[in-house]
Amino acid sequence: MERDRPPGKPEAAVPPLLVACALGIERFALRGGGRAGAPGPVRVVRTGMGPVHAARGVERALAREGWDAAAVIASGFCAGLAPGMHPGDLVVAEETRGPDGALACDGTALLVEALARAVPGRTVHTGPLTGSDHVVRGPERAALAAGGAIAVDMESAATLRTARAAGPRPLAAVRVVVDAPEHELVRIGTVRGGISAFRVLRAVLPAFFEWHRSLLLPRR
């Protein structure tokens, strides 16, 4: 699916798309989505868990020849914070929040529309996606929700902050809820929820390509 080699001359004007995730199972799901419809080179990179690994992994990926101008999407699983969320719901970040503050994402509305086509019937939530350096549970989860965040993960904020520090580029974060207030991972029923989230993540790449293609169109 992915093309790891640097873009050749025929595609030099098309910035690549870098999709960053933390876990092997996330990368497996994302790579399984195929690359039909991609407007340029695409790479799905596994960074490892946590903000430190995410930052290092994205920094290395963007340092590769030909990838310095890549658009970046942080993706994978997340914990939902808002009441009524279910495993398999999608989260499109309007901004990511981390220790260095908030960072606005690009093309949120485009992604929501594209995901509705790619994964029909799935609920798509938009709002702030907050970062943590550990698994969030109980009162801490409630406190984050009270601050306005709709979901939390350990890598998105660090991924996008590092990408922005490396230069101007389109940025987005799209996560699939695997764990929610009424469906926490400690419950035995979440095995089924995990399978649902995996299937949704496997289907999102066409929406990422549509987002990427739309950002390449001339602005009027």
Q: Can you put this structure into words, describing what you see?
A:
This protein is of the alpha/beta class and 220 residues long. Helices cover 35% and strands 24% of the residues. α1 packs across α6.
Number of helices: 7
Q: Using only CA atoms, what is the Rg?
A: 16 Å
Low-confidence stretches: 1-12, 186-191
Q: Give the termini separation.
A: 33 Å
User: How many DSSP-defined strands?
Assistant: 8
Keywords:
single chain; five-stranded mixed β-barrel
Please write out the topology.
Layout: E1 17-21, H1 24-31, E2 42-46, H2 51-63, E3 71-80, E4 90-98, E5 101-104, H3 108-118, E6 124-131, H4 138-146, E7 151-153, H5 156-165, E8 171-179, H6 190-202, H7 205-216
Parallel strand pairs: 1-2, 1-3, 3-8, 4-6, 6-7
Antiparallel strand pairs: 3-7, 4-5, 4-8
Helix pairs in contact: 1-6, 2-5, 3-7
Task: Provide a quick synopsis of the model.
The protein is an alpha/beta fold and 220 residues long. The chain is built from 7 helices and 8 strands; from the N terminus they run E-H-E-H-E-E-E-H-E-H-E-H-E-H-H.
